[in-house]
Amino acid sequence: MSTATQKTESPAPPPAEGSPSVGTLLLQGLRSNMRQYGMLVALALIIVIFQIWSDDILLRPGNVTSLVQQNGYILILAIGMMIVIIAGHIDLSVGSLVAFVGAAAGAMMIKHDMPWGLAVVLCLLIGAAAGAWQGFWIAYIGIPSFIVTLAGMLAFRGGTQILLDGQSLSPFPDGFEKLSTGFIPEMGPYTQYHNPTMVIGLVVCAAAVWQEWRARQQRAAYELDMVPLGLFFVKCAAIVAAVMAFTMTLSSWHGAPYGLLILAVLFVLFSFVMRNTVVGRHVYALGGNQPAAKLSGVRDKRVTFMVFVNMGVLAALAGLVFAARLGSATPSAGLNFELEAIAAAFIGGASASGGVGTVLGAIIGGLVLGVLNNGMSLVGIGTDYQQVIKGLVLLAAVGFDVWNKRKVGS
Fold first, then answer.
1. CA 283/CA 274 separation, integer angstroms
2. Residues 136, 128: Cα–Cα separation, whole Å
3. What is the per-residue pLDDT across 281-295, written as a single tens digit (0 to 9) for each?
4. How far is CA 273 from CA 7, 35, 290, in A?
5. What is the spatial distance between Cα 34 and Cα 236, in angstroms, rounded to a whole number?
């Protein structure tokens, strides 16, 4: 690597040619993660605006806990929908499948007195079977996913009406309802905060910092550009501050709800699968360029089939969580859930052409919608205006994605 000639009037030598400056590294990082960072900034701004507008109600511990419980099932759906969209498909049936699984759970537990643990396992198997049915027609027969899942949306909604005969079933067993409404029990000596939740928060902070350091070491091993060490520490400090602020907010109420633990496990699992496994790379390759992926040895039919099986299982889990929170199985459950999940995925950085997106982005997109819904309700904005605002947010997010692609390509 050649070095630039030092100017006589400058006491310090300039950086070597080809060695990126701090500003260049920051710009490169922002460009490569523009959608994700942009949505993080948007989420922070939305929180600040509604915190002020609602007279500090938004971030009260009780409201934060309610926000987590109210949006848990949408975030579960958003994770699965993000993977479906990355693979280059869409699933319109998840809302109806949520209702169908909830109806099946009600029939098993309430009508037939089945133990709720066994009923949960059977409902997850029903979701897997529904996903396999749709995945078969999409992957092996070649029918577009839009048509297959549209048919599934109608079929599962009709099946819900048949199972429930147009009536709601309640109540569910207490143990089952705790899946959505329960909290981690308190342990240890009395403090002002919920001890187990604080321990979990500290573990998450340590894991996040270790992951950031591991990623930095991997970039160093491959001699890739890295941000300066000082900026790296600032980023880690920001992550720790955000996690601990959220942890202490929950700990000052009843602690972490079980629904948050379910969501955390799913986030860690699917983030690892999509980033670090062959299956995850195949999903990205398939959505990015299917012909090239097939020529590279990707089993496109098998990958597509498994993507929809996974979506079916997650939809079933979301249906169980929603039924547990509602305390009953109702024919109208899951209405527009598919639209919320699709919107969360696109707001979180998914590309309509496939091959782009992250699990973290799906969570961020779902939180943007969740905070918007909660904040607008707190300040008294009607549901009609809420729909208009959410539609404009979705349009802006996808429009930003298109603009960003054109700018990068130019």
1. 8
2. 12
3. 999 999 999 899 988
4. 51, 21, 20
5. 19
- What are the angstrom distances between the C-alpha of 159 and each of 81, 129, 165, 315? 22, 14, 10, 15
Q: Phi then psi for 90, rounded to 5 degrees?
A: -145, 155
**CA–CA gap between residue 393 and residue 402 (Å, rounded):** 14
Residue 222 per-residue DSSP state = T
91, 304, 272, 86: CA torsion to nearest 10: -50
Q: In which residue are the tokens 């919320």 written?
A: 340
Q: How many C-beta atoms lie closer than 10 Å to residue 104's C-beta?
A: 24
Q: pLDDT tens digit string along 328-340?
A: 999 999 999 999 9
3-state SS, residue 58: coil
Rounded to an integer, what is the distance from CA 84 to the centroid of its chain? Answer: 12
Closest Cα partner for 259 from 313, 205, 202, 317?
Answer: 317
The CA distance from 83 to 311, in Å, is 8
Average pLDDT over residues 255-278: 94
pLDDT tens readout for residues 89-112: 999 999 999 999 999 999 999 999
Which segment of 3-12, 226-235, 257-266, 313-322 scores lowest on mean pLDDT?
A: 3-12
Q: Are 319 and 123 in contact (CB under 8 A)?
A: yes
Contact present, 102 and 177 (Cβ < 8 Å): no
174-206 in b/e form (b: 16+ CB < 10 A) is eebbbbbbbbbeeeeeeeeebbbbbebbeebbe
Backbone angles phi, psi at 257, to 5 degrees: -75, 155
The residues, any chain, with a CB within 8 Å of residue 410's CB and separated by 6 or more, are none
Dig out the tokens for 42 from the structure.
Answer: 């948007």
C-beta separation of 70 from 318 below 8 A: no
pLDDT digits (tens, 9 = 90+) for 347-360: 988 888 889 999 99
Rounded CA separation 114/122 (Å): 11
Structure tokens at 60: 């009260």
What pTM does this model have?
0.89
Write out the two tokens for 294: 């097939």
Rounded to whole angstroms, the Cα distance separating 45 from 22 reads: 26
Question: For residues 350-387, b (16+ Cβ closer than 10 Å) or e, as one string?
Answer: bbeebbbbbbbbbbbbbbbbbbbbbbbebeebeeeeee
